[in-house]
Amino acid sequence: MSSHNGHDNRFLAKMRGIMEQESSKRIVPNTRIILGITGGIAAYKAAELARLLIKQGVEVQVVMTEAACHFITPTTMQGLSGKPVYTDQWDASVPNSMAHINLSRAADAIVIAPASGDFIAKLAHGLADDLLSTLCLARACPLIIAPAMNREMWLNAATQRNIAQLRADGVQILGPDSGIQACGEEGMGRMLEAQQLAQDIMVFFQPGLLSGKKILVTAGPTYEAIDAVRGITNRSSGKMGYAITQAALEQGAEVVLVSGPTALVKPHGAQGVNVESAAQMLDAVKRHVAGCDIFIGVAAVADYRVAQPSAQKIKKSANTLTLELLPNPDILAYVASLPKPPYCVGFAAESENLADYAEQKRRAKKLPLLVGNLAQQAIGSDDNELVLFDDGGSHALPRADKLTLARQLMQHIAQRITGEQR
Ligand code: C5P
């Protein structure tokens, strides 16, 4: 079988258009990954993984084993990656008949997802009886594998021996996870979700600007109860704080994410603490702030709470209802005024006069860095535009998606921190 050619030109042209737009956000320029797919039901997740990597600006070359083609078609992978998929060691269209050497020399890493029990055994023993195993043996780049198999296959002494051997050989092993398996059994052996794999792979390519640093992030809104079923909250989605958590993890930091109620999934690898009210958020921050190098207060903390929330639902008994509100503690100001505070970063969403208000707020709360944004653009949306204010003046980060901005912000913070430590 040669590289797979069955395709619809219009579909591929459209896919390339989308990929070109998305790759303008690339953070690891020119990274080239061989995505190897082996035979397992989790092969369907490889399609999403390819899409997510391409979205990050990675160039993905797919290589599939024959068994993988029983689970997902090369056409799907060609459509998503925009490149012919290699499936055969004896591909006559490769001029020097050395696809294994050509491909592995052109790659920055090989990622095998899913890696079946059989393929892991081959890797552990250095077998090379198809294109993918041959190019792994011939590689001159890192190898990352995402095991996926039935729990008994994973627990089998042979598999465990093979995994230990691969670890000793320097192979990066991502997962597996435990949970319900395709066979209906429950246990260890599920492949990590594509989102988690993409995140771990991106971490692998980052310079680790924040490795060894402990970062505490607050995110999302707070919810201040009025009674058993009602409360005061705001429209913060938590997207910026979660993006910052992910960007910090990518740079090797250890992150505790204290989050108010959101609909978001905690980035893989962060320690999550879920809270509702500002008082609970402050308690959680107090519990985790010791030993922190950086505190980033992204949460939209309610300024006031109800003085006496009712334990029962308040009945509609009068025409008007007056609630007494008390001011909430300022969590960021509390952290910034600790005897040995971490490097504190605040966020200010203003609806006008951003520069003046933001700089005033930075001085009032004694913050080394304050990130300003226009509330009407920021809240709930996927994109934003930031201005960073610190002792060096202001620095604008032009409109982009929140993850891109979070990555730029973390690079800025990493530079500031290293500068201060010198
Ligand atoms: O004063 P203002 O609410 O605009 O300040 C916003 C910044 O202060 C954000 O970083 C927010 O997380 C933090 N903050 C806080 N506790 C409060 C109010 C705001 O940590 N009670």
Brief account:
Helix content is 36%, strand content 23%. With 422 residues, it is α/β, with parallel strands linked by helices. It folds into 2 domains: 174 residues, Rossmann fold, CATH 3.40.50; 214 residues, 3-Layer(aba) Sandwich (Rossmann fold), CATH 3.40.50.
Would you give an account of this structure?
This protein is an alpha/beta fold. It folds into 2 domains: 32-205, Flavin prenyltransferase-like (Rossmann fold); 208-421, Rossmann fold (3-Layer(aba) Sandwich), CATH 3.40.50.10300. Helix content is 36%, strand content 23%. It is built from 15 helices and 19 strands. The strands form 5 sheets. It has an 8-stranded mixed sheet, with helices on both faces. β16 (343-350), α13 (354-364) and β17 (369-374) form a beta-alpha-beta unit. α2 packs across α9. It is elongated, with a radius of gyration of 25 Å. Residues 1-27 have low confidence and may be disordered. It binds cytidine-5'-monophosphate.
